[in-house]
Amino acid sequence: MPHDNHNSPNDESSDLPDEMTLRVKSLETILTKKGLIDPKTLDEIIDFYSNKVGPKNGAYVVAKSWTDDKFRTQILKDPDKVLKELGFFGRQGEHVVVLENTTEVHNLVVCTLCSCYPWPLLGLPPSWYKSDEYRSRSVREPREVLREFGFNIPDEQNIKVWDSTAEVRYLVLPMRPEGTDGMSLEELSSLVTRDSMIGAGNPISPRRTDE
What we know:
This protein is mainly α. About 40% of the residues lie in helices and about 10% in strands.
């Protein structure tokens, strides 16, 4: 199953396959002719979530949780309140649940019906997240799917799959990488990948930041 680079939280992997791109473009043309959408407004929305939000907001939340125990407790207990105070809320992110990975449990997020995703935190969903294969197989065989992504979960660590919906979206709080003591909030944020906040990857190891 195709998958994007785990090591680049700012990649352009939201691009759709060629066939899907043509369908989307055709639909956009029809809706524009009917006066139902404004292409300029649509482009502005896509640009905002792709380039201004991306996974940056979510990465900040994760890094802050790694360095501030009080913040981590608050974001796990009442994420909507905290995210609203940070300004990380709105369209496609009205209600978010934060899931904390541990040595015992690894969380993986999927949307089996469509592609519900926390836009204000992670930007636009990557193409693989919207694929039929990921949406069906990640529920039935999550360990195998992650293995195909190049992400091996230890046998002793359970995998819990969460089905995102229009009412509830999820953000995974990955475990802090080893060797990051003394790093600044900005430096830690740069280690947080988009995939790690879905549960489909790990944060970048600090030894790889110069690669």
